[in-house]
Amino acid sequence: MKPLDRVAVYGASSNDSRKKIKFEFDGKTCQGLEGDSLAAALIANGIDIVGRSFKLHRPRGIMGGGVEETNGLVQLESGEFDEPNVRATQIPLYAGLRAASQNAWPNAEHDVFGVLDAFQRLLPASFYYKSMMWPNWHFYERFVRPIAGLGKAPKLPDSQKYQKRNVHCELLVVGGGPAGLVAALVAGRAGLRVIVADDREEFGGALLAERFDVDGAPARQWVENTVELLRQLPNVRLLPRTNVSGYYENNFLVAAERVSNHLGPQGQHRRLRERLWRIRSNSVILATGAIERPLVFANNDRPGVMLASAVRTYINRYGVVPGRQAVIVANHDDAYRTASDLHAAGLKSITVVDTRASVSDTLCRNLTDAGISHYVGYAVRDVVGKRKVRGVKISRHPGDGELARETVSLTCDLVCMSSGWTPTIHLYSQAGGSLKYNDSLACLVPDRCRQNVRVIGAANGRFSLPECFEEGINAAREEVTRLGVQLAVADISSPKTHAADVEALNIEPFWYTKNVRTDKQWLDFQYDVKVSDIELATRENFVSVEHVKRYTTGGMSIDQGKSSNFNILGVMAELSDQPIVKVGTTRFRPPYQPVTLGTFAGSSVGERYAPWLSLPAYASHASMNARFSDYGWFRPDYYPRESEDIVMATRREVLAVRNGVGMFDGSPLGKLEVTGPDAATFLNKVYVNNLVSLRPGFARYAMLTNDNGVLIDDGVVVRLAEDHYLVHATSGAVGRAFLLLEEYLQCEWPELRVHVNNVTTQWANVTVSGPKARELLQQFESDIDFSAQNFPHMHFRAGTFAGVEARILRASFTGEVTFEVSVPGRYGSALWERMSEVGAQFQITPYGIEALEVMRTEKGYLHVGADTDGCSNPLDIGWSKIIEKKAGDFIGRRSLQRQADKAEGRLEFVGLESVDSQEPLPVGGHFIEGAMPSLPMKSNGYVTSACISPTLHKAIGLGILRDGSSRLGEVVSVYAKGRVTAVRVVPTTHFDPKGERLNG
């Protein structure tokens, strides 16, 4: 490892002021300069191998200079700051940085798994689909999983801070290169609210990596001046280090800002690490630039083979020359700038190899004047050197990708390759934009998009600097005019560029060498996808580009095809003998670049991941020694006394309700108020049973199904007035039910005059249940008559109770006389305390979810989601007669008329009791044929709820059993965890089947 010499950074006054920084890579201490990227520092330290390829573990070095880098993926830091799969090209160097190579053991320099490269012919595309079949995948899994993947997931919790922010603007400019900066300046000066986002550490784009002059000075100076002008505009927000990763409908974009990553772990104290921006913009300008394509030739993945533009980046931006003897191989004019920049950096041995048959006289003369060797009409046949480039063999290129037999050997340690440019249209594709093929540029460019988005500069196939400036200014002016804003007097004119800075492409496509006997021409460097893999896919009749992508894995994973997709399309076109436009292209999916999970999560972690709702009487429950669990709401499971466990406490609470009176906090029960002249009509269209006939003051149990006739919720519906309903939903589904009703009103029946309001949290509830419940409530001052004659079961009353407004419903989930007393939320705690005080004379007992579930099971009451599956319909629980009696239509009714929904063999709701009355039924246990299990077995349903009934002193349960309604009295077998339990099928109602206690 021999460090390379530094050269002057173009446009900077001096390198002397750059501070030296120490860092570690694979345990070795290295030294870089302030402003370096990790990739630049690794190159400067002479580190050739930075990683290993995914499948074959071939040695890989830095190839790119930015987001297109596929090889330099490293594990950054460790512990709480541990982050895998980070591009070394996008990591700014900071003091104490620690990075390690990935997918290698013990390290990238000496990787034991590198032996796989010797067996590459046995490991073609999708070999695992064909070879890992016998005896089964699990046999191979134990060997594959430990060596699969790239980086390793962090082992410690992430202690960094993240944030999410919403922002609106009139214009979002994605990309801070020349086109994006001038567009932002014009729009900003016109007064538009502008956001400029760029994924690099500083604005400037390609201007920071090229020897361009703008307005008579180095382009870097123009960038600094322009950025300063933008900073002075109060209506412009600048977001460097911000990766716009997703483009969604209605110009909604998501961006991840690296707020303090560049400061390293030591700089994270009391700082945000990353921020997620959710941007809603009237218009979007994509100035995302272009990505240079690699050439395809044998062993083009060797360390030392780099993109020509990346070499210019390291020279001009970081002052690092990646080699001492360079060969530039290309098929267009633009790459000749690399030869010029290498010569300016002092490199003596430079050779240009051009695959085209002819090159302009100007280019040839420039090379001759500089003493640079030139081979026109040649291409690389092979790369010499295994762990590092030692030279190349070139042959004459008559055309069409075929090479002559004779070779010329060139000694070098750096190969700068370029096959043209691919506009960065990932975000445009995500926005729904279509693409078209440009023959003269040999690339796909934007065509049409329904969203209000413009693509400018290199992203639009305008690769020269004057064109970038012109497009940026014109796009901004058109946007300002579209919004009806007057252009500012200080509007800018296009900056002046030096003619020598502009080179045409004059590209002649060169996809791969066709007559060279090798299967080592790499297309996707990350996933080891070669030309031979595409040939194999073609032979096996994979003609769709999407199928080829998945069969070969080309263009997948972290790279997402940035450097490989277009070459894959070119090879597919050659093999199928059709133009690229006919081959098609894959759709790009978000995120455009990887985004940490912490950024997406933001502060929604731990208890804030899904914040539970607190009961109004939470403190009162806690004072009674309640044991809580998270049900969305933090609710009491049981109230132990002394040394009771959950079983003992639950048994005591159940018997207290059955024999006296209990109190339960039912505040989380969903409450939706449905009002309006068409409220009855609307609910009748939605719910399974008839709600039009429900009279004010009455309640009715109702079920809700989806379009497919599947049960999704249930609850008691109360009619408060002719135009006013109170719809109860389960506490876990009330949010979904509310949104569903809103969707129906907005999308299906917008003509109905109905308003739906979720009032769940506005009312606190104390439910009293048991034989003494009525007697207890009669102790309170109230204008409501609680007598059985005047307040029967399934009725509702509103009035005052204990001096406050109250809504009281007689409905029961326990099977006992029950009153659900609801008061405004602010009185919840007072009501609970008062009920406890007054109820003391009746030995009132608070009971929790566990006791409620036991009593529910005893009564055989359905719990949608627990006693149903994703196919259960109302017919499966015995509601066929109710549906027959309803004359009107409802959501899901047509689906219930399908033969399959009425056929034999469906899983039906039944009651269960253990043949051995003291043997518990296993919840989740499957019904099987016969008493002796023989794996694999067919399941005939499963046990959904079970308990040892404190009331009945036996093991009971509920379940869904195939043809269960016709099997009452039959003994069936339940299999769970290697044991078989004999179970008798009985009616669902185990306790008080006639419901006599409800009407007491």
Automatic annotation (TrEMBL):
Where's the SoxA A3 domain? 519-602
Which residue numbers delimit the Aminomethyltransferase C-terminal domain? 909-992
Query: Is the keyword Amino-acid biosynthesis in the record?
Result: no
Limits of the FAD/NAD(P)-binding domain: 171-453
Q: Which UniProt keywords apply?
A: Oxidoreductase
Q: What is its EC number?
A: 1.5.3.1
- Pfam families assigned to the protein according to its UniProt record, in alphabetical order: Fer2_4, GCV_T, GCV_T_C, Pyr_redox_2, SO_alpha_A3
Domain GCVT N-terminal, first and last residues per copy: 618-886
Q: Which InterPro entries match?
A: 2Fe-2S-bd_N, FAD/NAD-bd_sf, FAD/NAD-binding_dom, GcvT/YgfZ/DmdA, GcvT/YgfZ_C, GcvT_C, GCVT_N, Sarcosine_oxidase_asu
Q: One MF term from GO for this chain? A: sarcosine oxidase activity
Q: Please, which domain of life does this record's source organism belong to?
A: Bacteria
Q: Which family does it belong to?
A: Belongs to the GcvT family.
User: Which named protein is this?
Assistant: Sarcosine oxidase subunit alpha
